[in-house]
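S1.2 Input.
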Amino acid sequence: MSVPFGAADRMYPAGLETLAGELAKHIKSEQDITALSRQLLKLTVESALKAELDEHLGYERHAPAGRGSGNSRNGYSGKTLKGDLGEVPIQAPRDRNGTFEPQLIVKGQTRLARLDSQILAFYAKGMTTRDIADTLQELYGTEVSPALVAKVTDAVWDTVQAWQNRPLETVYPILYLDGLVIKVHQYNRGINKTMHVALGVNLAGQKEVLGLWLAETEGAKYWLTVLTELHNRGLKDVFIACVDGLTGFPEAIQTVYPRTKVQLCIVHLVRNTLRYVADKDRRAVVADLKRIYQATTVADAEQALETLAEHWDGKYPSLSQLWLRHWEHVITVFDYPEDIRRAIYTTNAIESLNSVIRKAINNRRIFPSDRSALKVVYRAIEQAARKWTMPIQDWKRALNRFAIMFEGRLPL
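S1.3 Output.
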């Protein structure tokens, strides 16, 4: 509910405003504000717990209704809460029958929810459990052991598993598939593994990470396993799959999704092409390559490819041959208008996702286990997804085009 201008001074009781004014007289520094905040937190929590006990017993302290009720107050037990204000000792009330179960601070709870949130936020940035414990000590003066941090982050694993196994929508018009190399401790040493990432664009035009898979190698055979899992989780149709130039990748996709159009990432193809070109020729070669993928029609692109061959086959015969080998999966892009082209001939959507993942994993030289790597990447993605934008701005127009081009394949 919005508050009208001028109404703020009527939101609090006069007594509370007077108390705030008195307390403010004693504040001389930030440390004073923190100390006061701790005291207010202590008073608030203890008052709330007493109110909960009143509700549980059915009568207020010293009220006649409590006589012969069969239960009564039974003193207090001390506990220390840890949070972003540091350590706050409180006195939690008890009942004689031991049936009181407070909801604000449950039995056994010593951490405020915000502390757990802070731990998970640091974890998403790739910080180690020891780094997190040290940072909390520096920021808030809160002593949290690495073992406790590990316990909090371990609770994420159940969420990760549920997310990884969740049912998917039946159709994702666009699917991006890519892999990143990370180092994981295994066999008593650090080894390179590939984090396989599947990023879909759903029927609402929103990006959605469909899953994460960690394996020792990236190959078409493993991608076939990933695609089969996606199919088993409910993804029955993909219109366009955007991939790099991994050998056998298109065949793996079309084994599971035989009607899917495969679009090779032009950025990857250009990058691979330039591996064969001397530095002094790169600018001129790039100019010829742009004429291919920025062409208006397939015919124009084929003409530009012939020009590339004429200019460079004598010196670099592999260049035009590389594009010819992949030509079927290069020209998919020419079936679409500019806005859809931009979304599928580059992998900007998944590259932005990869940059999020890299920021998280670059803070770790090596992950202690596969589980640790997956938890960190999951948390990083979860935080980044809140700020994602749509890869195709005029999505309604794009969806109408898909409905015509892939007739009968959009769910009713």
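S1.4 Remarks. The two ends are 38 Å apart (CA to CA).
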